[in-house]
Amino acid sequence: MAGGKGAGGFLKLAVVFLAILAIGIGVFKPLINAQRLGLDLKGGVHVLIQAQSTPDHAVTPDDMAALERVMRDRVDQLGIAEPVIQREGSDRLIIELAGVSNPEEAIKMIGKTAQLEFKTSDGQVVVSGKDLKDAKAIIDQQTREPQITLQFNAEGTKKFADVTKKLASSYPYGDPKRAIGIYLDQQLLTNPQVKEAIPNGQAIISGGFANFEEAANLAALLRGGALPVPVQIIERRTVGPTLGADSLAKSKTAIIVGLIAIALFMLLIYRLPGVVADFSLIVYGLIVMAVLWGLKATLTLPGIAGLLLSVGMAVDANIIIYERIKEELRNGKTLRAAIDAGFKRAFTTIFDSNATTVLAAIVLYFLGSGTVRGFAITLSLGIAASMFTAITLTRFLLHLVVGVPAFHNLWLFGVKEEQIPAAARGEI
Length: 428
Known about the structure:
By secondary structure, the protein is α+β, with helices and mostly antiparallel strands. It has eleven helices and 13 strands. It has helices at residues 2-34, 39-42, 61-78, 103-111, 154-170, 212-224, 241-270, 272-294, 301-330, 335-367, 371-402; strands spanning 36-37, 44-51, 84-88, 92-98, 116-120, 125-128, 132-139, 146-152, 180-184, 187-190, 202-206, 231-239, 298-299. Strands 3-4-2-12 form a four-stranded antiparallel β-sheet. Strands 6-5-9-10 form a four-stranded antiparallel β-sheet, covered by helices on one side. Strand 7 (132-139) and strand 8 form a beta hairpin.
């Protein structure tokens, strides 16, 4: 009967361990490859811009919200997947574009005001960028030159129809007063004559484009909208893809070496419970990577540092538990009772230690910015996952281990036979 129970317990333990290994081997690499990589790991552009107050207008929170929205629209026009755009202080904006192929063009688009205005010959602004609905770059089929077609919204269509009708009826064709100048950031792009009233809200910017790419970039700027306030680029940093790839490779190596070292340490010092801890770390890694992927978090070098620190804390929790278990065994408790008492006595210490670390991470998140926040997030997430695996999964696996009579040798738990009271020897 005991042999049957032992065989059943060993089978359960083997199935659980094999399942963890299979899931880890099958899922871990795809999860790693699916992670969003930050600027320092993938290469790209880091830009810090500052909104500028004018004598007539001070920068407000609403201006910053509008600036952030316009910048996000512009970056979307560049076709960059998952950029990092966040505020710093009351008048600054951090923009990180990982994996950009043309950093200089990206910086140029970010910093351009893109204030579009249609003016009559007397300088009156009749239509502006806020009246614009769409802008597209095309190639003129006759001249083969790049152009930009503009489509105004309902209000802009009415304004444009009224002014073109008035100019067409008031001045003869060829009269300078019949022209409408198209200005971008106070610079004249073109000054076409109005042939007739234009009721459909469409216009064309032609001439002055060196190539189609220049026209397409300008159209993207116009679609993204003009900046609500003047801005100044106060910091710009380009990280090459080679440097980013090198950082990523070194980070992976550091993680692998660190995990192997931790696994060997736990195995040599704590023996069978160390094996259990190593399997718990596999589940810990899967949980953390899955949550980061689900949250679409951006992984950076400080973020990786936070994860490695949380791995150390996860092992630290297991060490506290195992030392408590060994202490209970030396006091003469049975293996099952020692495991339950060890977890119970270690819980308060583990909780207090992790709670203070999480509190520090919260402070870093709310007072820090950029990569500091990334460190705080991954550290907090890692601590939560380590608490779960150390308190619940490790305990579950240890109870499965106790269900196998062949594993009742206390040497496997790091305790020598002579350290056990004689009256308690041989008990489970």
